[in-house]
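Board notes (copied after class):
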Amino acid sequence: MPWFWERRLLRPRVLRGRYLGAIRHLSSAPGLPPAPSIAAPRRRVVEVPVLHVGDPDHADDGAMIVDADAGSTAFGVYPDGTVAVTAPGELLEVHCERLVLATGAHLRLPPILGNDLPGVLHLDALHRYLAQGADLSGTRVAVIASTDRHAAISASLDRRCTVVHLGTGAPSRIVGRSRVEAIELDGRTITCDVIALALDQPAVELALLAGSRGILGPGTLPVVLPEELPTWIELRGRAAARLELPGCSASRDAFACTCEDVRIRDLEAAVTSGLRDVELIKRRTGAMTGSCQGKICQGTVLTALRDLGVEPRPITPRPFARLTRLADLACGHDR
């Protein structure tokens, strides 16, 4: 309790010490239990011709596969062909002649009002919920996806939920107080419970970490793309896509970074204050420093900064694709 409020509220003064002691006692946390004994991961050096990271469906025969769904993940790529990998109980140093990245895509968050409401999903997340047995019968879903995917989407969602809209253009606003209630699109209000967005940001963090130059693509809803990819690295699947996403008008009150509650207007204020570098604006606002480490919001933040006259230089990548225990990375106690 700040001293100002101590003087105001803790009276009479002679009893202030007892009051503070009681407050400290009530607010103190219990002692932490002893840490469980965890064996340090085994460290191993592996040499392979081809290392494949991501979707196994895109892998060559005989390639070593690193797949988060199977419990392994790549978290470091170095110019000499070394890739750092965590696997169950192991920390691997993999030396490869060729690296294939089929790391998929993240949601490209559109900067529209209401984009932080519960019920705003990537289409992939909706499919995962249904695959795990979620009962969405009667749930009204609005889907935004490219025209070439409409037939497949209709077939996959048929009779599993109620598709009230299937279109290509991003809505001008998502309406709701504590959850999605409707979208506003082309002057219409479409009532829905969920909005599923198939707006992909290719997952190129490992490619950028390997030395590729990141650029912001064209359009009003651009994505971050890798340029000058090292010759020993190949992108496949959705990670290699260079899609042209639909146009979108940004709202000043929309969230640019939902992890850290940074709105478009907060970025404007940072630039107006004199900050003209992405890294400085990131530190000032907290944008792109949350749990997604910019995977979802980087395109939105960089687009807003580009429109404000700041060079949209992608940030240093943080490539973890899933939550990783510190124990998976720790050495033994003697190292």
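Comment from the instructor: The mean pLDDT is 88. Helices lie at 3-9, 16-27, 123-131, 150-157, 205-209, 264-272, 278-285, 298-307.
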